[in-house]
Structure formats: structure tokens, C-alpha cells
């Protein structure tokens, strides 16, 4: 039987880690110069979600994606795919990625967007994936010009900005995802 | 400097998917967004994705009856699950990474969180596999038909037998995680996860028995096609900069 429309999404359930987000999938690189992104996923009551799956997709430091559509003559980082997966820790609710900070990627008009990482959030009790972006607090100028950020009411923009924690090496950015409520993360339709 | 290809994917068919909150499946209530999604213009960040870079799979990964590494075969009803991954025009999509996970023949998952259900584990079955679709968008797994299993959502709740499927298509927007069910399962009307999908679309998650897939003296055949969002339309002039 050939389907006549999109196959419906279903939850990843509680056992996704049998296959997804295995050991090391959250470490995109071990290189000097890497950054750490960590945080929690919070539900509508502010409790951490102990079985969320996070997937990131990003350009390398040059701003180029490792993808056949990105034919630009820019350097591709060796051994860096730009894809990572992490599960939140069952006890602490914390997730962690180690990766390279992406360079800027052009929009459809060719203007550079602020550096960002695409993020897909799934989990038990989530029937659909949710999509958002991680921006960086130390890119104030670029963030101020970014079309996506400018389309968001100022009060909600901080939900997309990872906060650089001072004095750590490698540098750590804190990025919590709030699924519901007053501080709900801005999620995208595209 | 060569211009990138910035495709334009048609809108996602939200009406074919479950709502974020479906109270009969209790844990959805606090975990889905309640505010409107923000519509953004697709850029390379949305029109590319990890699918094409991840092709490091071996043929053995698609045989869940033997991939536990013990050299012995898993116990249960041996089945072939095959079909095509299609775009919304019905064209097969090559190079899609498919990852699956499932319970064993008794309904038991190999996962440390499964401690309540006193069904036996099978030392020769780990319940995970992967493959990449071929040039026609076709995939094929050999596995064991999973059993139904109980869960805590409501009194005497049982999930219909299912296999979890994760698909990495050509773009981030075509990311899909779903579950494949088996035609004729009496638990369908009782399962809030199955029924969270809109009624008109539920059958798209159901595999059908196909005697042409069945192999004599070996395994029963099930056919299931999956349609991903998007048709990857050829970019129009001026899309690349």
C-alpha cells in the first residue's frame, strides 16, 4: 500500500537510547578550540525531562554545511560532520554537547545570519519533534542583525541564546529548553 | 565561489500528524509547546540535514535476528520488513538512514528502565538495527516480530506490537521518528499513541502482510512504505546567491 500523504510522527518513547544518542554521539569533536553546550529540558511545571533526545545540526567554523547542497568553496573541517545527538541524563536532566562553534551561514538573499546551531527536541511524551536554534550570547552584533531573531518579540529572544559561562576552558554555553509556559522556548515552523 | 543550492520544501502537513498534546497519552500534556510556532524562511540550515553524511552502516546491521554478536539466532517469528521511503510525489528517496529499535518476541525491551514487565530477555536479541535506503529508496530488515507490552499510562494498558523507526532524510525538515504497526492488531482501538495520529492517517503507520515478500521455509513478509515531508523541488532561479 502506497501512502498518500506524510507518515505520521510518533513518540521516540522511553527506550530510544537503545539505538539513538549512544555513547559518544554527543561529542562532535575532541579538538582544542571546541565549545561545550549544556543545559536541561524543562516541562510545563518546570521539572526537568529525564528522557529527552536532542539532535543538533550545524555548519563548521567556515560556515559551510557538510551536505551535497552546500557547494560553496569554503573549508570543511576534517572529521566533523556537524551532527550530534544527546539524551538528557535520567538523574540530573542535563544534556551536553562538545562541538565547534559554527561560522555564519547565508540566508536566502545571501546576507549572513548570526552563527547558530539547529536543534531538534524529541522525547517520551512528545508526539512530534520540535525545532529551534541555538544562538550565542557573545555574538551580540550579529544577533542584532539576524532575521530570525529580529522576527521574535524581544521578551522571548533570550530563549534562543546560549549564555557563555565565564572562566571555563573549553568555554561552556548554557542553553535550557522550556517546552511550555511563560519562558517557553520559541519553536519553529519551516 | 559556487552558489549553494537552497531548496524550497513545501509546508509540513501538520494535519497528518498528532497534536503536541493528546491527553489520553498522559505524559504529552506537560511536554508539548502551547504557543504558536514561529514560521521562519528556509535557509541552508533548514534545507540541509545530517542524512547524507551518515552512511556508515554494514549489511549485518539490518539483520536483527543475528546482530547480537553471539553467533546464535534470536527466538521468535522471523519476519522481513521492507518497503520504500518516498517523497511526497511518491518518488523513492535514496540514501535515507533508517534506525530501528523494538521489543523482543515476548514484548521485552533490552533497556535498563524496563524492570516491571516479567517477560524473558533473549540473549541473542538486542532489538536494534539500521540500514540506508538503496537507489530506489528501498529498505529491508530481517527481524523478529515484537510482542505487545504493558505500560503505565492507564489501567491494563498494552501497546500494540510495533517497531520504532527513525529516518534521516535529505533535510532537517524531513526528520521523522515514527512507529510501524502490524495489520489487524486488536489493540489498535485501545492505544492512545496509535490513536494520537489523525484517523485518516493511521493506516499509514500499519504494515501489511505481503506473500510476495515472504520467503519459503524462512520468513514471513511485511510491506510498509513511508512518506516523508517535502519533494525537494528543483530550486528556482535566484534561490541561490
In summary, what is this structure?
Chain A is mainly beta and 190 residues long. Chain A has helices at residues 140-145, 147-150; strands at residues 35-42, 52-57, 83-87, 94-99, 117-123, 130-136, 161-165, 172-174, 177-178, 188-189.
SSE inventory with pairings:
The complex is a heterodimer of chains A (190) and B (241).
Chain A: E1 35-42, E2 52-57, E3 83-87, E4 94-99, E5 117-123, E6 130-136, H1 140-145, H2 147-150, E7 161-165, E8 172-174, E9 177-178, E10 188-189
Parallel strand pairs in A: 1-8, 1-9, 6-7
Antiparallel strand pairs in A: 1-4, 2-3, 2-5, 5-6, 7-8
Chain B: E1 38-39, H1 44-47, E2 78-86, E3 97-102, E4 128-132, E5 138-144, E6 149-151, E7 157-159, E8 162-168, E9 176-182, H2 192-196, E10 206-209, E11 220-223, E12 226-227
Parallel strand pairs in B: 2-11, 2-12, 9-10
Antiparallel strand pairs in B: 2-5, 3-4, 3-8, 6-7, 8-9, 10-11
Write down the Rg of chain B: 19 Å
What order do the helices and strands of chain A follow?
EEEEEEHHEEEE
Distance separating the two termini of chain A: 29 Å
Number of strands of chain A: 10
| SS element count, helices of chain B | 2
Question: Which architecture of chain B does the CATH hierarchy give at level 2?
Answer: Sandwich
Rg estimate of chain A, integer Å: 17 Å
Query: What is the chains' assembly state?
Result: heterodimer
Regions of chain B with pLDDT < 50 over 5+ consecutive residues?
A: 235-241
* CATH hierarchy, class of chain B: Mainly Beta
Q: What's the CATH topology name of chain B?
A: Protocatechuate 3,4-Dioxygenase, subunit A
CATH superfamily of chain A: Aromatic compound dioxygenase
Low-pLDDT parts of chain A are none
Tell me the name of the CATH class of chain A.
Mainly Beta
Question: Would you give the CATH topology of chain A?
Answer: Protocatechuate 3,4-Dioxygenase, subunit A
Protein architecture, described:
The complex is a heterodimer of chains A (190) and B (241). Chain A has one domain (16-178): Protocatechuate 3,4-Dioxygenase, subunit A. Chain A has two helices and ten strands; from the N terminus they run ββββββααββββ. Chain A has helices at 140-145, 147-150; strands at 35-42, 52-57, 83-87, 94-99, 117-123, 130-136, 161-165, 172-174, 177-178, 188-189. In chain A, strands 1, 2, 3, 4, 5, 6, 7, 8 and 9 form a nine-stranded mixed β-sheet that branches. By secondary structure, chain B is mostly beta strands. Chain B contains two helices and twelve strands; from the N terminus they run βαββββββββαβββ. Chain B has helices at 44-47, 192-196; strands at residues 38-39, 78-86, 97-102, 128-132, 138-144, 149-151, 157-159, 162-168, 176-182, 206-209, 220-223, 226-227. In chain B, the strands form two sheets. In chain B, strands 2, 3, 4, 5, 8, 9, 10, 11 and 12 form a nine-stranded mixed β-sheet that branches. In chain B, strands 6-7 form a two-stranded antiparallel sheet.
Amino acid at each position: 500500500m502506497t501512502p498518500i500523504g506524510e507518515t505520521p510522527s510518533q513518540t521516540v518513547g522511553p527506550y530510544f537510547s537503545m539505538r539513538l544518542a549512544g555513547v559518544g554521539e554527543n561529542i562532535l569533536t575532541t579538538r582544542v578550540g571546541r565549545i561545550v553546550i549544556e543545559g536541561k529540558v524543562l516541562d510545563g511545571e518546570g521539572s526537568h525531562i529525564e528522557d529527552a533526545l536532542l539532535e543538533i545540526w550545524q555548519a563548521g567554523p567556515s560556515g559551510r554545511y557538510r551536505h551535497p547542497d552546500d557547494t560553496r568553496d569554503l573549508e570543511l573541517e576534517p572529521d566533523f560532520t556537524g551532527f550530534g545527538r544527546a539524551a538528557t541524563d535520567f538523574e540530573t536532566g542535563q544534556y551536553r554537547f562538545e562541538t565547534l562553534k559554527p561560522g555564519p551561514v547565508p540566508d536566502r538573499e545571501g546576507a549572513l545570519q548570526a552563527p547558530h546551531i539547529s536543534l531538534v527536541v524529541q522525547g517520551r511524551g512528545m508526539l512530534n519533534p520540535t525545532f529551534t536554534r541555538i544562538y550565542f550570547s557573545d555574538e551580540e552584533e550579529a544577533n542584532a542583525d539576524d532575521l530570525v531573531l529580529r522576527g521574535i518579540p524581544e521578551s522571548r529572544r533570550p530563549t534562543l541564546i546560549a549564555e557563555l559561562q565565564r572562566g571555563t576552558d573549553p568555554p561552556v554555553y548554557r542553553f535550557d529548553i522550556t517546552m511550555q509556559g511563560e519562558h517557553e522556548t520559541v519553536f519553529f515552523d519551516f | 565561489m559556487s552558489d549553494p543550492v537552497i531548496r524550497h520544501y513545501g509546508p509540513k502537513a501538520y494535519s497528518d500528524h498528532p497534536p503536541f498534546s493528546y491527553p489520553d497519552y498522559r505524559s504529552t500534556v506537560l511536554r508539548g509547546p502551547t504557543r504558536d510556532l514561529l514560521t521562519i524562511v528556509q535557509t541552508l540550515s533548514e534545507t540541509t540535514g545530517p542524512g547524507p553524511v551518515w552512511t556508515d552502516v554494514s549489511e549485518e546491521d539490518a539483520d536483527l535476528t543475528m546482530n547480537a554478536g553471539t553467533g546464535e539466532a534470536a527466538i521468535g517469528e522471523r519476519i522481513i520488513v521492507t518497503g520504500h521511503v518516498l517523497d511526497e510525489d511518491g518518488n523513492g528517496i535514496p540514501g535515507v538512514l533508517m534506525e530501528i529499535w523494538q521489543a523482543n518476541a515476548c514484548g521485552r525491551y533490552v533497556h535498563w528502565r524496563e524492570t516491571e514487565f516479567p517477560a524473558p530477555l533473549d540473549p541473542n536479541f538486542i532489538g536494534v538495527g539500521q540500514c540506508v535506503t538503496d537507489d530506489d529508496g528501498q529498505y529491508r530488515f530481517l527481524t523478529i516480530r515484537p510482542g505487545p507490552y504493558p505500560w503505565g499510562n492507564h489501567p491494563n494498558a498494552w501497546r500494540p506490537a510495533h517497531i520504532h523507526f527513525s529516518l534521516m532524510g535529505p533535510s532537517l525538515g524531513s526528520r521523522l521518528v515514527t512507529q510501524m504497526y502490524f495489520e489487524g492488531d486488536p489493540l489498535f482501538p485501545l492505544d492512545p499513541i496509535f490513536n494520537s495520529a489523525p484517523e485518516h492517517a493511521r493506516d499509514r503507520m500499519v504494515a501489511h502482510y505481503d506473500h510476495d515478500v515472504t520467503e519459503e521455509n524462512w520468513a514471513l513478509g511485511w510491506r510498509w512504505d513511508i512518506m516523508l515531508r517535502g519533494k525537494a523541488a528543483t530550486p528556482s532561479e535566484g534561490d541561490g546567491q
